[in-house]
Write a structure and sequence with these properties.
mainly alpha
C-alpha cells in the first residue's frame, strides 16, 4: 500500500540527483527509453547524463538509487531501460511493478492530482494539475508533484479515508 511516508522517502531519493538534473542542458526526454553512459568515460556516470539520456523520472530515479555520490555505478557502455527505475519506484512504494504504480495513479486521481497518472512514464501532462500538456519538463516539477501526492496521502491517512 502506498503511504505518505513511502512517497516522502521516494522524494528524498529524487533529491539526491536534483543538482544534476538542474544543470544547464540536463532535462527529461520522454522519447528516450535508455539510461546510459558513454563508452570510455571516466567520470561518475551521473555527471555524464545530459538532455536526452534519461526517460521520464524513472531514469532519474534509477540514477539516484544506483549512485552513492562516491563511486561509479553504471559501467561504461552499459544501458538500462527506464522500466528498471519504474520497477524500483513501485517496489519502494510497496507495489509489484511499474504498471501497478501507473494504475494506482490512474485509479486514485484525487490522490495523484489529475486523471492522467497512467501517463507518468510517457508525458508531462501526468504531472499537471489539470492533466494538460506542460510546456517545461523538469525533474523539479515532477518532484514537486510527488510532494503534493505525499501531502494528499497524509490528509487521507489523517482523515481515515485510506
Amino acid at each position: 500500500m502506498i503511504t505518505s511516508k513511502k512517497v516522502r522517502k521516494l522524494v528524498k531519493t529524487f533529491e539526491r540527483v536534483l543538482p544534476y538534473a538542474r544543470r544547464k542542458g540536463a532535462s527529461l526526454n520522454m522519447d528516450s527509453a535508455v539510461v546510459s553512459r558513454p563508452v570510455g568515460s571516466n567520470t561518475p556516470a551521473c555527471q555524464d547524463h545530459k538532455c536526452g539520456t534519461v526517460h521520464c523520472h524513472a531514469g532519474w530515479y534509477l540514477l539516484a538509487k544506483m549512485w552513492d555520490g562516491k563511486a561509479e555505478y553504471l559501467p561504461a557502455g552499459r544501458h538500462y531501460y527506464y522500466d528498471v527505475g519504474a520497477r524500483m519506484m513501485a517496489q519502494d512504494l510497496g507495489l509489484l511493478c511499474g504498471y501497478a504504480l501507473k494504475y494506482w495513479a490512474r485509479d486514485n486521481p484525487d490522490l495523484w492530482g489529475n486523471d492522467r497518472g497512467n501517463e507518468m512514464f510517457i508525458g508531462m501532462r501526468a504531472f499537471s494539475p489539470d492533466g494538460m500538456n506542460v510546456p517545461e519538463s523538469s525533474l523539479d516539477a515532477i518532484v514537486d508533484h510527488w510532494r503534493q501526492v505525499a501531502d494528499a496521502l497524509e490528509l487521507a491517512e489523517i482523515g481515515g479515508v485510506i
